[in-house]
Write a structure and sequence with these properties.
Layout (H helix, E strand, L loop, with lengths): L12 H13 L8 E5 L17 H12 L4 E5 L19 H4 L22 E6 L2 E6 L11 E3 L10 E3 L18 E3 L3 E7 L1
Parallel strand pairs: 1-2
Antiparallel strand pairs: 3-4, 4-8, 5-7, 6-8
Length: 194
């Protein structure tokens, strides 16, 4: 599926997500559907490059949107070049020495695919070894800003921690989640179960 939620352009996150869900529901088993997410990935077309203006929050936003249901996530540079795919710390496919994660680390979904918001603009889905959380607000509904993530809704303090990332280490700093936290609009987070 192309035409994913655009933070500054067309439509709301909800309309785009509904289209993604409809694509999954209209396919035959095993319901293979890919959400194609486009961001500026820098001059080499194979790695996210903050110096080239890449925003990791937008890449996380796309990946977590996909993980709310059972589709596949594709990240590309916005062109038609699919010869290489940039990777994120959250995937466990790169920087294993820093993250301590490996391919498939998140495990299988614990919760069913998500069809409605869990707490206002905050959506989440639990997995065997973690949880994905997204602030779906992209300013298209008239509201802007961050949203509070109430950790008591998914287990409470000390259950999850931020991954230890090397790409966006200020965000993915390895800290234990011991209190409610704020998640900016157009952002998402993947937390590791302790």
């Amino acid at each position: 599926m192309d035409g994913t939620p655009n933070p500054s352009g067309f439509g709301s996150w909800q309309l785009s997500y509904n289209g993604y869900v409809q694509n999954i529901l209209s396919t035959s088993a095993p319901n293979l559907c890919t959400m194609d997410w486009r961001v500026n990935i820098g001059p080499t077309n194979d790695e996210l490059n903050p110096g080239a203006g890449t925003v990791f929050n937008l890449a996380r936003w796309g990946m977590v949107t996909t993980l709310l249901d059972d589709g596949f996530f594709a990240l590309n540079s916005g062109g038609s070049n699919y010869r290489s795919a940039p990777l994120l710390d959250e995937t466990g496919l790169i920087n294993a020495g820093t993250t301590g994660l490996s391919k498939g680390w998140l495990g299988q979904p614990f919760d069913p695919p998500q069809r409605t918001a869990r707490d206002g603009v905050i959506w989440w889905r639990r997995y065997d070894n973690g949880i994905v959380i997204i602030n779906t607000n992209n300013g298209q509904t008239g509201s802007t800003g961050s949203a509070n993530v109430n950790i008591s809704l998914f287990g409470g303090a000390g259950i999850y921690k931020r991954i230890t990332g090397s790409q966006d280490s200020g965000f993915n700093d390895g800290s234990v989640v011991n209190a409610d936290f704020s998640l900016n609009q157009i952002d998402a987070i993947v937390l590791e179960k302790i």
